Amino acid sequence: RTALEGAEAGEIGPHLGRPLAGVPAHYLPWFQGAEGAPRLHPSLRACLGFRCASLTALPEDLGCFDVVLCRNVLIYMTESAKQAVLSGLARHMRPGALLGLGPTDTAGAPFLPFAPGLYRHG
Fold this sequence. Notes:
Strand 3 (about 110-115) and strand 4 (about 120) form a beta hairpin. By secondary structure, this protein is α+β, with helices and mostly antiparallel strands. It has helices spanning about 1-10, 40-45, 80-90, and strands at about 65-70, 95-100, 110-115, 120. The protein contains three helices and four strands.
């Protein structure tokens, strides 16, 4: 719940050291608050939504997504739980949407490799 509250407030990894170090300068205004603090621009926060749910039993009314980041989660699951999560995510992703996984995770159909760690929903 604390992580969701921070995300809703637009906070970007305050415990991660320098989370904006790799962001190109021309994008920084979208990710910096007062005095350069890592924070999402209010217009970006306005188009984001956050909700607590179980990855293995996603609610039907969750909606459809263009991007899903599920990094460093699947590694802790059994193979059947991983498949349940990936199937559930696929049901809530638009065709062509991107799925970001951790470096130890992979996704099969209906996801197609797009770039290292990224899969496109086919």
